[in-house]
Each structure stands twice: as C-alpha cells, then as structure tokens.
Amino acid sequence: AQGLLFDCDGVLWAGERAVPGAPELLERLRRSGKAALFVSNNSRRSVAELERRFSRLGFQGVRAEHVFSSALCSALFLRQRLLGGGGNGSRAGRVFVLGGEGLRGEVRDAGLRLAGEGEPAPGEPVRAVLVGYDDQFTFAKLAQACGYLRDPQCLLVATDPDPWHPLSDGQRTPGTGSLTAAVETASGRKALVVGKPNTYMFDCIVERFGVDPSRTLMVGDRLETDILFGKNCGLATILTLTGVSRLEEAQAYMASDSAAAKDLVPNYYVDSIADLIPGLDE
Amino acid sequence: LPGPGPADWLQAPLEPAVRAVLVGFDEHFSYAKLCQALRYLLRPECLLVGTNRDHRLPLEGGAAIPGTGCLVKAVETAAQREAFIVGKPNRFMFDCVAGEFPVEPARTIMVGDRLDTDILMGNECGLTTLLTLTGVTALDEVRGHQESACPARHRLVPDYYVDSIADLLLGFKQ
C-alpha cells in the first residue's frame, strides 16, 4: 500500500488516551514514506482543533490539511452547493446549523453565513439546514429547522449518520444520526449525509491529495461506517478492535446471506493498529 | 440535570428503580434528556414506550410543529431499538376502551381524519371506519391507497367518508 486512511475515534485514541503504539505506527509510516490521512465522522471539532488534539495526544507531524472531518467536508459540500459555479456570495443564502462552535466555525470558514437562533424569517433566506452533533439540541431548534425546510429549495444536510458514540467508561452518547432522524421525521425530507459510509469525504481527499484507491487502505473501528466506506470507495479495509465494533459482529455479517452484509466485512482485522507495526518492516 | 454539557450529565446518578422510558410530546425535549434516556435504555430490562408516532401537529395556516413521532425516532435511533407505540394505529387503546365499556366492533364506527392512525386502527379492530375531510387527509390520498397493488395500503381505506362530521346530522333528521 502507498497510503492509509485512518478513522480517529476508537482507532488512534479512545477519549483522551492514545491507543498504545498508535503514535509509533504513524511515526514509522512517516519514515517509510507512506502517506497517512485521517477521515472522521466526528463533527464536533474544527480541523485546527483536531491538529492540536493530535499533537496533545502524542502524534507528531499531523497537520490540519491531512485531516478530513465531517465538519470540514459538510462545509465544503455546502460551499459547493450554495456558492459553487461562481455564485454571488450575497445570494447564496444562510445556513441554519444544529451543532457546536467547531462545526459553525468550519461553515463560516467556507465563506457561508449562519442563520441565528430564534431569528425571525425575513432577511436573507435560509438555503440549508445542517444537522451535526448538537449537545444543545432542543425542540425549539427542531421546530425552527422544520420552518426553514418547508421551502423545498432549502437543503437538508447531515454531517454523519452515527446513531451513538461510545465513551471510555462503556456509556454511550447520542450521535448526529438520532438528531437527523428527528428532523427527517418532522420535515418529511431525507437528509443528504456527508459522512461515512457515503463517499463525499473520499472525493474531498482525492481532490486535495490525488489518492489511488487501489493502493490505499482504510483503517477503522465501525463496520457500518468505516468498513462500508472503504468498500464504497474501492479501498481494502482493516478493522481494528479498539473501538465500536466487535469481532462477532463482523463474523455475523460474514455468515449472512444478504449481499449488503458482505460489504460490511473487512478484508483484515487487528486487535489494535499497533499490530500493523511489524508488517511495516517487511 | 446539573451542568452545561454531556461530561456533567453523564456523571449524574441514575435512579435504580427506573424500568421504562416513555416518550410523549415534549416541547422541552433536549439532547440532555435524550442522553439520559439512552443511559436508562442501556439497561436490558428497561422498556421503551412511545405514546404515538405522529410526525407533525398541524397549526392554522398550513404551518406545523414537530410531532411526538420525531422524538420517538430520535430515541429509537440512539438506542438502536424499536419503541412499543401505545397510540393509534396500535389496537392497545381500543382494547382499553373495550375493557371499560361494552363495545361491539360490528356495531361501532371509528371516526377520524388520519388514515395511518385512525382508519388503520379502526379497520384492524373490526370497526366500521368513517373518514372526515376536515383534518389532514385529502380524498385523492385515499384513492391512491385504494388503487394501489399493495394489500397493506388497502387497510388504510375507510368504509365511508364525509366532508365534515356535521354531515352526519342529516342522518339523524330522517
């Protein structure tokens, strides 16, 4: 392989702890001239914050431009749809974002204007509702989003489909997927989902770095997002067991008769990505 | 819940006696509550119950507010489980009525404005069903179901319809 795409949560780190051996793996990849890029469904942080996080957790040399988060890619997607084709910025309309400051910042950095919360309708129209991880989600915001979505021209976009995320103590927090389900049900619309397993984030990677899928490996911890993403993009896949999915789940998909289930079976698996280090020496 | 963010909420103690999460219409629904619901639902013996699945509650002038169904879907998605829905079209509420009053399905009419709740429940419970057009349903929706090749959609077709329940007064004058 020429390069590897890594998911972050559950692969490189769990909470505030780097997976033992993960920083060493990345360092070895760097030294052997293999590209390492990062693709994460987590829409909480800007890529600038992620760059600092990599550094804080002991990963050297990872720059913001190597990191593709669903927050960044959602902003790029909206920029394309609302500003693309040389559109006049002031006619692009505003974006109503259900999410935190990291996501809002990425949307602003893409040159888009945000609708305020609780603002009255008049003024520049809202041309997109973006649903991300929003720990301040409320019924009032859901109602506000639905108001904008009555206009069929208003896009409904979600950063990622993840229904929940694990925490280090075994608990779970609700993910963007659960909030998107509420907005879809209320508005009668289906969201365009930017994140894995959909392939838009890979398009962003290819545009910036010109990656060859036949020589790139996808490494992730979640079968339904990372492994299916790899399959959808034509990448070979490695499942690591330090995150969400259990080996039994992969085995169950493998044993299933359904064609769709086969797409969720990784090509390889490791207990942890540290297990990839010996292979690099060959 | 104490504290402004998930880190605080997830430390709040859970009540050991909670055995069910009940989702109803909640204009104060929030991520924090969704978080708490998910914590309880991770206990295997905890039930997940929803009052109904209505997507939208119509207001005057064509606007609408999100219905309970949206909140149920959010909880179901986070917990990766299906809720038991008490409300129509589930027959549970009819069974409650029949348990308290001497109702003979063959001699009872269900009157409603919504095909996928009122009419479906009525049909499933062996009642005669009457659709009124003063609510959410338009007649061509009914025709669509009637002409469909799908047998499940036929269950949404009422036995009768009126423009308004006031039209039933004509029956009394005879």
From TrEMBL, chain A:
GO terms for molecular function: metal ion binding; protein serine/threonine phosphatase activity; pyridoxal phosphatase activity. It comes from the Eukaryota. InterPro entries: HAD-like_sf, HAD-SF_hydro_IIA, HAD_sf, PGP_euk. Its cofactor is Mg(2+). Keywords: Cell membrane, Cell projection, Cytoplasm, Cytoskeleton, Hydrolase, Magnesium, Membrane, Metal-binding, Pyridoxal phosphate. The keyword Cell wall biogenesis/degradation does not apply. Its EC number is 3.1.3.16, 3.1.3.74. Substrate binds at S40, N41, N42, H165, K196. One of its GO terms (cellular component) is lamellipodium membrane. Divalent metal ions. Mg(2+) is the most effective. Mg(2+) binds at D7, D9, D221. It holds the Pfam family Hydrolase_6. It catalyses: pyridoxal 5'-phosphate + H2O = pyridoxal + phosphate; O-phospho-L-seryl-[protein] + H2O = L-seryl-[protein] + phosphate; pyridoxamine + phosphate = pyridoxamine 5'-phosphate + H2O; pyridoxine 5'-phosphate + H2O = pyridoxine + phosphate. It is a peripheral membrane protein. The active site is at D7 (nucleophile), D9 (proton donor). The keyword Repressor does not apply. It is found in: Cell projection, Lamellipodium membrane; Cell projection, Ruffle membrane; Cytoplasm, Cytoskeleton; Cytoplasm, Cytosol. Belongs to the HAD-like hydrolase superfamily. Functions as a pyridoxal phosphate (PLP) phosphatase, which also catalyzes the dephosphorylation of pyridoxine 5'-phosphate (PNP) and pyridoxamine 5'-phosphate (PMP), with order of substrate preference PLP > PNP > PMP and therefore plays a role in vitamin B6 metabolism. Also functions as a protein serine phosphatase that specifically dephosphorylates 'Ser-3' in proteins of the actin-depolymerizing factor (ADF)/cofilin family like CFL1 and DSTN. Thereby, regulates cofilin-dependent actin cytoskeleton reorganization, being required for normal progress through mitosis and normal cytokinesis. Homodimer. NCBIfam families: HAD-SF-IIA, PGP_euk. This is Chronophin. It comes from Dicaeum eximium. The gene is Pdxp.
From TrEMBL, chain B:
GO terms for cellular component: cytosol; plasma membrane. The keyword Cytoplasm applies. It comes from the Eukaryota. It is found in: Cell membrane; Cytoplasm, Cytosol. Keywords: Cell membrane, Cytoplasm, Membrane. InterPro entries: HAD-like_sf, HAD_sf. This is PGP phosphatase. It comes from Dicaeum eximium.
